[in-house]
Amino acid sequence: MAGFQAPALARLIDQFNRLPGIGAKSAQRLAYYVLSMPEEDAAAFSNAILDAHKNIHKCKKCCNLTDDELCPICKSMNRDKTTICVVEEPKDVVALEKTQEYSAMYHVLHGVISPLNGVGPDQLSIKELVSRVREDNVKEVIMATNATAEGETTAIYISRLLKPLGVKVTRLAYGIPVGGDLEYADEVTLARALEGRCEL
Amino acid sequence: MAGFQAPALARLIDQFNRLPGIGAKSAQRLAYYVLSMPEEDAAAFSNAILDAHKNIHKCKKCCNLTDDELCPICKSMNRDKTTICVVEEPKDVVALEKTQEYSAMYHVLHGVISPLNGVGPDQLSIKELVSRVREDNVKEVIMATNATAEGETTAIYISRLLKPLGVKVTRLAYGIPVGGDLEYADEVTLARALEGRCEL
User: Fold this and answer.
1) CB A138 within 8 A of CB A167
2) B22-47 b/e (C-beta count within 10 Å ≥ 16 → b)
3) Under CATH, which architecture does the B77-172 domain have?
């Protein structure tokens, strides 16, 4: 493959190829696209990478990504400070914010407990969560980790840490996705939906 | 959506979102991935973009992308200089080189004639091709534009320009893809495959 491709181009393709979900063909397509962009757009792209890397860090309180000491949600005066929703990743905050149904606080773990991948509780921001519950006047912690084995384990682990502190620990409901067909729901989901049934 | 996301992060997501084939979700995933990269990897990515943009330009002869005056293929001593394969984009050169069946020259048009998109022959590197045919001792020009209406039109347009110069102009064969099922071939392809049948 090499030999007939300019090194600077090969390097750019390689850089795109390292990104998750970007294969060799997409990397090539993206690299050619970047080359076809006006000079200033390429500079803006290049700067955005450096800039984000330099300025973005974890919020001191909720560990979500921010460019300030506290993220806009933690700083906000209009949010219920007594409820914390615990999520795995910053993108889960984005997903929950999109519902426009939640107006309390978040806590981002930055992962799940996964012994297979060598991730223990100490690598997650669990300590920070415990001290928030201890120090702030938190009444409820909603576990919103993913519905995977690891997400569950993490939720159970954290709830065992928090319950002795006298806080209510809840979990997102399991059930059939809205618009979903019973026929296509797996048995475990259906069983959970039955279990969690509520009065009409 | 905005408001709770740091501006530097939003800008990075936006930059990824501008790339072709990268939607909002992928852009977010890629941006978070870039943030999770070590500092020096992010710097390398950022530099690769600027670097490619600064150093890569069109080869003086074949208009393929290169960081030198002439691309490695045009500079090579081991290639047949009397045959030129005309392609739409630099990535087509990559595809043809991968076959390892072609060892002559290329010419990259950087597009196709497309009146609907406002692309006329003058925006493509057709002039350069004509002067190559005129000045170098070219015996055959292989049209390898895509098998689309626009690719065809461009091939026919160029062949009409070149034929008066006494050069042989050919086109890639149409037919059933290798490994393809007759059942799934469309009628036009099948008709072309019949038309182009050859003796066994």
Assistant:
1) yes
2) beeebbbbbbbebbebeeeebebbbb
3) 3-Layer(aba) Sandwich (3.40)
Closest Cβ–Cβ partner in B8, B46, B98 for A46: B46
User: What are A127-172's pLDDT values in tens digits?
Assistant: 999 999 999 889 999 999 988 889 989 999 999 999 999 999 998 8
Rounded Cα distance between A45 and B2, Å, is 19
Distance (Å) from the alpha carbon of A7 to chain B's nearest alpha carbon? 8
Q: Which fold has domain B2-55?
A: Helicase, Ruva Protein; domain 3 (1.10.8)
Pairwise CB contact (< 8 Å): A6 & B65? yes
Interface of A with B in 30-49 (CB under 8 A): 30-35, 37, 39, 41-49
Domain boundaries, chain A: 2-55, 77-172
pLDDT tens-place string over residues B36-71: 899 999 999 999 999 998 999 999 999 999 988 999
State the ipTM, two decimals. Answer: 0.74
Question: What pTM, to 2 d.p., does this model score?
Answer: 0.74
